Amino acid sequence: MRQSWAGPRLAGAFLLAASVAILIAVTAIPGRGGYGTAGPRFVPLIVAIGLIVLSALFLLRTWWRPDVELAQRSAEEDDATHWATPGLIMLALLVYAFALEPVGYPIATALVFVAVARVLGSQALVRDVLAGLVLGFGLFTAFTQYLGVSLPAGLTPIF
Amino acid sequence: MTTLAVLSDLIDGFGTVLTPENLAFAAIGVLLGTFVGVLPGIGPALTIALLLPITFNFEEPTGAFIMFAGIYFGGMYGGSTTSILLNTPGESASVATAIEGYEMAKRGRGGPALATAAVGSFVAGTIGILLLTFLAEPVADLAVQLQPPDYFALTVLAFVSVTALVGRSLIRGLLSLFIGLFIGLVGIDQVSGQSRLTFGVDELNNGVDVVLVAVGLFAVGEALYVASRLRHRGEDELLEVEGAKTLGREDVRRSWRPWLRGTALGFPFGAMPTGGAEIPTFLSYALERRLARGKAREEFGKGAIEGVAGPEAANNAAFTGVLVPLLTIGIPTSATAAILVAAFQIFDLQPGPQLFTKEPDLVWALIASLYVGNVMLLLLNLPLVRLWVKVLEIPREALTAGILVFATLGVYSISGSVTELIVMYVIGVLGFFMRRFDFPVAPVILGVILGPLMEAQFRRTLLVSDGDFGAFLERPFAVALFVLALLALILPVAVSSVRRVRGLGEED
After folding, report:
1. How many domains does one find in chain A?
2. Which of B64, B296, B313, B469 could join B259 via S-S bond, C-beta 3.0 to 4.6 A?
3. DSSP SS3 for B57
């Protein structure tokens, strides 16, 4: 079976870099505080060092005693992955989060539903729009009127 | 604590639960739980996380917990339906069910497979709840005597067992755990009031809610993963339920022993501080396969009913068993239990030994509602199988879009903050890559919820001992737990090393 090491190595390098960043953030926590021997920095320090050691081990095992199973899985994933799809979905979600309050829950939800369904290859535009509107307005009504959860109305024409 | 006293407490519990209103809550819980649990890729932990907001407006916790008991059982049953008909288990505990269940459905025996799962879950659930009823108070009485070092050791054992015994790589398991521990540290330190690891974002001072982590990892991560492969892979084939819908005499004859054996494996595994339902379901599968004789032996691999009955019972019994450490000691040992802690916290309740003394009515009402939820599940779901199959016919695009809408709704209802939505989406991206590189997800959830508890007990121990680390080794109970944790960590590695030396195993 084919093997791909680029993915695991990138993941390992990212984890290691993130762990180092966490360690730097940990050093900003004052070591003394409250009372007792172990201050607020003690456990974060252990966690940060643990993360660094484990990320380094993960990275190391792409060369030394390589984890072949993972490389094969990674190769299979590389072949199967269509990067644009999850990328566009993330974009839709980010727009959704920022549009939620100005645009309002019902309309933003209907829009994101249609957008995500389209990105995933849905051809049934009418069905998606209807389902999105039902979801958006239905959930908004149920949560704000009956469940006591407040959701942003924004530009919602009714209510 | 005598049997009689337990029964009297339990009857009081039923008195609280058996009102028309509460029965309606139980029914709604079962229906919603099954509905969400049936959706492909959604396991019980995510089911509960997504349905948490429904109870925000409840004035008193009893009704909410009755509904959650229904959701808990419904979510599990829904997951097995998906495993059997679509071969997409929502979580690792349903994987064993899918092996024979999907084969049965392929051969037109989907009806009996679903029925043996439902009845097996009911049998295992009932026995499990009975055991919980009689174990709960004695264990809670013992738990009152636990001291900080013991609690610290318990959390360590729970961590080690969830990472070392599950998943294919110890390094990746531990990395998952440490990522969880890190997320759990973000926010104001409970002891000193010091703000930690917020990276300048004020909203993070309140910490990162475990619900947000679970929804991000399970819902968004899974949705992105499915999306990335959608163009490559064809649709999963949804199998029809044809022929017999219920268990025939022969099916019952072949199922009842696996139900009981599965229960006997599942409950103790779930009830131990190591927790988890994965191991007992696979053990049950292996056991049934080994014990199979005659026709069953020929059928294994091609859809043997024993291979569904056993693991399903084990799964349900383990899930009930998990409630023992959760309710009595306050330690969640599975992702689902961790989300249940979040449900308790909505009502300012902390599961653990104090709950039995402070809120005995609530605890017994909760235990009674487990019985009610379990019966309700059987009554509602056997006739409703057709409806749940319809749910599976929702097109995958609409389903994924819907899951993302519900994930966002769940987190926004809890936090009301766009920043936390962004955090949840980022955790979703993390979940996507974790799936890609085969990192287990459950250790992250446990790290988030148990990390702060572990830190508190760790620092409390050092405070009492005035900085002497020897304090951790002075309590025999704690030492025993540390030894168990060490064994769990070393044994799998040692076994595989010995195998390698002997030239066996590890086919790479």
Report:
1. 2
2. B313
3. coil
B387-427 per-position pLDDT tens digit: 888 888 888 889 899 999 999 999 999 888 999 999 999 99
Helix residue spans in B325-417 (DSSP H): 335-346, 353-358, 360-391, 396-415
All residues of chain A having their beta carbon less than 8 Å from the beta carbon of residue B404 are: 89, 93, 112, 116
Token pair for B28: 């709604």
Query: Cα distance from B396 to chain A (closest Cα, Å)?
Result: 9
- Residue B195 has phi, psi (to 5 degrees) of -80, 130
Q: E strand or H helix at B425, and its extent?
A: helix B418-436
ipTM of the prediction: 0.95
Distance from CA of A23 to the nearest CA of B (A): 10
Inter-CA distances, A116 with A24, A62, A108, B155, Å: 38, 36, 12, 40
Residues A61 and A90 in one domain: no
A123 and A100 within one domain: yes
Q: What is the radius of gyration, based on Cα positions, of chain A?
A: 24
Q: Per-residue pLDDT tens for B49-93?
A: 999 888 877 878 888 888 988 998 898 888 888 888 888 777 778
Q: What is the DSSP letter of B196?
A: E
| One domain for residues A23 and A55 | yes
Together in a domain, A64 and A96:
no
Q: Are residues A71 and A90 in the same domain?
A: no
